[in-house]
Design a protein that fits this description.
The chain has 201 residues and is mainly beta. It has one helix and 14 strands, in the order H-E-E-E-E-E-E-E-E-E-E-E-E-E-E. 11% of the residues lie in helices and 42% in strands. A hairpin with a 2-residue loop joins strand 10 and strand 11.
């Protein structure tokens, strides 16, 4: 029994150390605040523009929607951004392959705010990937800091310094560009700044 208890204590200590270590990782800027260098965007794209150091995403008149991807692919990584919106928006951060989305704003299917929850396509929002306690720290209409950590098959999301989501799924195993979404069929505007990322592998 003592050996079992010691083993559990050791595992908990290692887990706590790994989480504390991950918080010390400082991602680097991937948005320069001036233009879309480092991102895949058509020269005549109507969806994304830079205004006073802020990346502004807004749907076009046809409400076609768009995803702005990084030129670089990431597997294990830390991603941070500050994001601001008002009203009904449906955005998110895309990662890995097959595609996994960290939701920002209102879920079109659930009709409620699912910020920092993971959307898995046809499977919707699995319970294990839904944010817990995010309403306590979410600041609607103001800047919110989101930090996503992908390490192996585990994905963690912090909102304004609070860990709100920890999701484990081995499905999303391949590296892919990071993406910022404007959902189709919805008039919406979302703003991003201080976008940073760091590959861990």
């Amino acid at each position: 029994m003592r050996l079992a208890a010691l083993a559990v204590t050791s595992l908990l200590t290692l887990s706590s150390f790994a989480f504390a270590e991950s918080l010390e990782v400082s991602p680097e800027p991937i948005f320069n605040g001036k233009d879309l260098s480092g991102w895949k965007a058509a020269a005549d794209n109507p969806f994304w523009k830079v205004v006073d150091g802020v990346l502004v995403g807004q749907n076009d008149e046809g409400l076609k929607g768009n995803v702005l991807f990084t030129e670089k692919s990431y597997h294990d990584f830390v991603f941070e951004c500050e994001v601001r919106w008002e009203g009904h928006i449906d955005s998110g951060v895309m990662l890995r392959k097959p595609e996994l989305q960290c939701q920002i704003g209102i879920s079109g299917s659930l009709k409620k705010d699912m910020t920092c929850s993971f959307y898995v396509g046809k499977g919707g929002y699995p319970e294990a990937g839904q944010a817990k306690g995010k309403d306590e720290v979410l600041k609607l209409g103001d800047w919110n800091k989101i930090r996503i950590e992908a390490r192996g098959n585990t994905f963690k999301v912090s909102l304004n310094g609070k860990l709100v989501t920890e999701f484990t799924d081995a499905t999303y195993a391949e590296a892919a560009p990071l993406g910022l979404q404007i959902h189709p069929k919805l008039p919406m505007k979302v703003e991003y700044r201080n976008i940073r990322a760091k590959a861990l592998d």
